[in-house]
Inverse folding.
């Protein structure tokens, strides 16, 4: 049997070809825009996350393929813009952008910088990102003065947003003891995120795990009620407590 010596990633080229064909020959694919596809990027990302949480690594390949399709789809749309259009880009431009970013932000791997451990890697990462943000601000005609919080997207889920804002601020020298409950709406939740972060935990992941535990216990209590011939919606508060306590046994 001949060993396959083709390099990893060679099938991505075929995916690019398939996408180009779909743009030409499929009415639905050909009519899509960056804006119309935005919701699918989010949807496919969450389906991938769910697969990881469920530990279904066999299905993970398929879900990651759906995410990769979205990247290639957007690149195909970008490549259709005319030459010279500043908004035009190809799939290779997308790859070049992330290659450049990763090599630039890992000087301890691709350069001559030596680091003592993970903490120094993170410190260098933040310093490099800060310099990048300053350069982008100057390129847009600004002074180059930027906040350490610039670049944190507010469109992400609230728990993730709170975590990213706190992490970015503290990692750049902001006093950790100033991150807490400000006494206004949501302050307690913001402080709870900080408490999780202080323990080195990911509050988004932990909250999702707590939600899954709650989901499982409610369903188990419902099943126990039905096994007794009871309809869960007709249970009294006391009966709910009884079935709920059984799910903790």
């Amino acid at each position: 049997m001949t060993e396959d010596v083709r390099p990893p990633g060679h099938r991505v080229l075929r995916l690019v070809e398939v996408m180009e064909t779909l743009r030409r020959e499929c009415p639905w694919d050909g009519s899509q825009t960056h804006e119309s596809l935005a919701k699918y990027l989010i949807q496919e990302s969450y389906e991938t996350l769910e697969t990881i949480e469920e530990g279904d690594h066999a299905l993970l390949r398929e879900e990651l393929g759906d995410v990769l399709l979205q990247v290639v789809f957007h690149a195909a749309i970008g490549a259709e813009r005319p030459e010279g259009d500043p908004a035009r880009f190809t799939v290779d431009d997308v790859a070049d952008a992330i290659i450049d970013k990763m090599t630039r932000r890992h000087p301890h791997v691709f350069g001559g910088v030596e680091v003592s451990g993970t903490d120094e890697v993170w410190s260098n990462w933040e310093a490099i990102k800060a310099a990048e943000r300053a350069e982008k601000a100057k390129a847009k005609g600004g002074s180059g003065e930027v906040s350490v919080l610039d670049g944190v997207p507010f469109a992400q889920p609230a728990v993730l947003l709170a975590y990213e804002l706190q992490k970015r601020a503290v990692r750049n020298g902001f006093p950790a003891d100033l991150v807490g409950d400000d006494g206004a709406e949501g302050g307690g939740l913001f402080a709870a995120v900080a408490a999780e972060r202080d323990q080195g935990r990911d509050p988004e992941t932990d909250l999702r795990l707590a939600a899954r535990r709650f989901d499982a216990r409610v369903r188990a209590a419902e099943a126990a009620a039905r096994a007794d011939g009871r309809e869960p919606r007709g249970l009294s508060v006391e009966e709910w407590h009884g079935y709920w306590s059984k799910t903790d046994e």
Remarks:
- DSSP finds eleven helices and no strands in the chain.
- Residues 83 and 89 are 9 Å apart (CA to CA).
- The mean pLDDT is 91.
- The first helix runs from residue 10 to 25.
